[in-house]
Amino acid sequence: MPTTLTVIEQFRRARRVSVPIFAINTPDPASTMQALIQSTIPPPTSTGDPDTVPAIGECPFPLLKWDLSHGLIGLNQLGHDLQSNHIEPANQDGTRDPVEALNILERCHGRLIVFIQGAHRILHHDGVVQAIWNLRDPFKNSGAILVLLGVNITLPPDLTHDVITVNQPLPTRDDLDRIYADQHRAAHLPLPSDTQTAPALDALQGLASFAAEQVIALAMQPTGVDIPQLWARKKLLIDGTPGLHIWNGTERFDDIGGIEGIKACGHRIIQSKRPPRALIVLDELEKIIAGASSDGPSQSDISRQILGTLLSYMEDHQAGGLLLTGLPGTSKTMFAKAMGAEAGIPTIHFNINEVKGSLLGETERQLRQALEIITAVSQDHALFVATSNAMSCLPPELIRRFTYGTWFFDLPTEQEREHIWTLYRKKYHLDPSDPAPEDRQWTGAEIFRCAKLSWEFDITLQAAAQYIIPMAVSGKDVLKRQRDQANNSYLSAATGRVYRVDTDMPRTGQRQFAQNN
User: Fold this and answer.
1) Running DSSP on this structure, what letter comes out for residue 454?
2) Helix 299-316, helix 362-377: angle, nearest 10
3) Tell me: the pLDDT tens digits for 142-193?
4) 145 and 13 in contact (C-beta within 8 Å)?
5) In 10 A of CB 182, how many CB atoms?
6) Residue 213, CA distances (Å) to 24, 57, 241 in order
7) Do β-strands 21-25 and 320-326 pair in parallel, antiparallel, or remain unpaired?
8) Taken in order 407, 411, 412, 413, is the CA torsion positive or negative?
9) pTM: predicted TM-score of the whole model, two decimal places
């Protein structure tokens, strides 16, 4: 079926050609089910006998629904009649067993519509899979349809060729605009202007219809909607999605010393013809996909699945990306998070390892759910910013997806270190006259730690420096390998040009580095 058709239109077509089993991935199964039922109600006509026109809200076919709590129940009078004919009252509780309920449906005839709510929870059960397959031919012959409703339904191989699957996307901006207006009418408040509505829609993007209605209602004030409340409640909902966490920091580019080259690139991306609407941070990418290239089963299979899904998503959605590498503490993650604040867009930390599940299909389901929310929040304009301390672990096909380049973060230069000291002296209200310690091979994170220790212990910076062992000293071999790998291959975060060891390595650090090797 064409992807341009709505779920309702695809459902109607499926009914017309007697499709027996129809699966819908939906974030709001109740709203989807109600919309499907509404689509089956014949419109009233101005001619003919009014007694023959179905009552408003009445479907001319038996409607039944199954869920784990209620079992198999009728949704309209015809559905109740069918339920009474096939289920003894004493046996109603037994229909909570999905296999028993599906076996009962196999004995039903006619153009009934049956909704299975929470289908993704039961499709791993062999008996359920067999019982659903058994309905294929009887339902095809009678014109009945079984509608599987769930979140990122993963079909077992037995049903892949027998079930039509469609996706109910999260509400569009226009859908949310209508919900926002309806909530104002329900509260008897004047409709807000487009200018007033725009920031509210930004805060609502990524929520399901029911969640959006509830969030708006809770944020409604006598004078209108409290936008900060919308954001606060939306953050709670996003944080409840496995793998996704909203970053609440306020640091911007001016709060980071140095790395002027990548800051300039960041500004160009923000001001481009296709600016990002949400920034997605993938921290320590090599750990996220660990095992994807190994030959072992189990976790390596899951890692390969995650990698494949991520690659497909970034390509299909033309998502841009920046890949940042270098020693820990060189401001990679700090830059990634600051860019979201600089652009004034949501920054979402995406921990893909948190979507890994123990049940069959759970990882794929939770990963796709997270990506759907990313699509909705970003209005399909997501920018991925990934950090990695081990580029050799990343497959080339993944590196190529980061279309804004791979950037190398070297140790800060003397001028950059002076700027970083100024920032942290100000942050911790340190004495400007207190001399800085010897810092030729320090990262920005080590300067931060020294300043923080000086404030916490109420000691001089030089005294605090005794607790610092520079990563460039303890990991000098790692730094050399990274510099050699970056040489003529990656972009310099400091200059924005191709990184070259002979010109871009900090000069004061270069002499010391040579002495240590």
Assistant:
1) H
2) 20
3) 999 999 999 878 888 889 899 999 988 888 888 899 999 999 998 888 888 8
4) no
5) 12
6) 22, 22, 19
7) unpaired
8) negative
9) 0.73
